[in-house]
Amino acid sequence: QALEQEIEHLDGILYIDHLESQEKLFEIIQEEEE
């Protein structure tokens, strides 16, 4: 899968291009370490 993903990058295809909807994306917010 990793190799396929890298080959797709060379073809200009991004992971998000395979999503049915961008509504399924969510942001992960990391807490800062003190």
Distance between the termini: 36 Å
Number of helices: 1
What structural category characterises the helix and strand content? Answer: mainly alpha
**Shape by Cα distribution:** flat
Share in β-strands:
under 5%
InterPro entries: Peptide_deformylase_sf
Organism: marine sediment metagenome
Protein name: Peptide deformylase
Explain the overall architecture.
The longest helix is centred in the first third of the chain and has 9 residues, at 2-10. The chain has one helix at residues 2-10. It starts with a helix and ends in a 24-residue tail after the last helix. The protein contains one helix and no strands. By secondary structure, it is mainly α. The protein is flat, with a radius of gyration of 14 Å. The mean pLDDT is 76.
Annotation keywords:
34 residues; mainly alpha; Peptide_deformylase_sf; Peptide deformylase
Topology:
Blueprint: H1 2-10
How would you concisely characterize the structure shown here?
The protein has one helix at residues 2-10. By secondary structure, the protein is mainly alpha-helical.
